[in-house]
Amino acid sequence: MAQGMAGIMSVTGEGPGRPPVKPGVPMTDITGGILLAMGICAALRHREVTGEGQMVDTSLFEAGIVQTYWHSAIAFSTGEIPVPLGSGHPLNAPYQALKTKDGWITVGAANRSTWKRFAELVDPRMLEDSRFSTNEARMENLPDLVAHLNSLLEKKTTDAWLTLFENAGVPAGPINSIPQMHADPQVLAREMVVTQTHAEAGPVKTLGLPVKFSNTPGGPRHPASLYGQHTREILYEAGYDDSEIDAFISQQVTVASS
Question: Rounded CA gap, 4 and 70, in Å?
């Protein structure tokens, strides 16, 4: 509902006139958490300077709205209603997903130099084709461009094209499944997938910390807790003794596994 109210679902999907689509990830939930964390940090700094605390709040709705900065700017400046573009870009082409022999890749060959390098690898005739020779022409003839590129890219595998593009300095990347992403060398190098030992499940994988600190490195410290596993520990830290905690448990105020 928050995504729909914020306008996100009106610009997500394959194109105008198609059913509204929400992103496959809980965008407003995650963004809301990030915004609140930023707000808390700012409020803590304010308290450090002034000694005053304050209320900090945000919402899923506002978290969705901030994701429309770009589309809102377009609507404010042009009066036009932004529409879904699939994986495409409102100003540049090709800047989207394209089909290969065994999957899909994203290509960002939008400016003059990257377009030239890209075209020389895929089809040099496009450099002289009036439909594709400039970015303006490519945007005007985008359906023809996409059809032409798909017909050519489908002749080689994703890995083959990505190797060619990498060597030529053309921005491109695979469209990974979630397990493929988990196995990506960069993901592993950045410790974005880590293994922990769970009390019941044994070794389990989880996502790592996406922000890296040079002096205070962090990451997941403990696997997911069992229900009530740390109740006593937390209440001890809050100043309660055993008799008080036992009373909480007997009155079903809380639950403890030990």
Answer: 17
> Active-site residue among 29, 102, 242, 246?
29
Nearest to 90 by CA among 152, 122, 135: 135
Burial letters 17-47, b for 16+ CB under 10 A, else e: eeeeebeeeebbeebbeebeeeeeeeeeeee
Rounded Cα distance between 224 and 200, Å, is: 10
Reply yes or no: is the peptide bond before residue 19 cis, omega within 30 of 0.
Answer: no
* 159 among known catalytic residues: no
List the chain domain ranges: 2-78, 95-175, 176-210, 225-258
Residues listed for the chain: 258
pTM, two decimal places: 0.83
Q: How many helices (H) and strands (E) does the chain have?
A: 12, 5
Condensed to tens digits (0 to 9), the pLDDT of residues 1-33 reads: 999 999 999 999 998 889 999 999 999 999 999
- Note whether 253 and 231 are within 8 A (CB): no
pLDDT tens readout for residues 114-140: 999 999 999 999 999 999 999 999 999
May I ask the CATH class of domain 95-175?
alpha beta
Residue 151 CB contacts under 8 Å (≥ 6 apart), including other chains:
none
Which helix (DSSP H) or strand (DSSP E) does residue 113 occupy?
A: helix 112-122
Q: Is residue 6 within 8 Å of residue 72, measured between CB atoms?
A: no
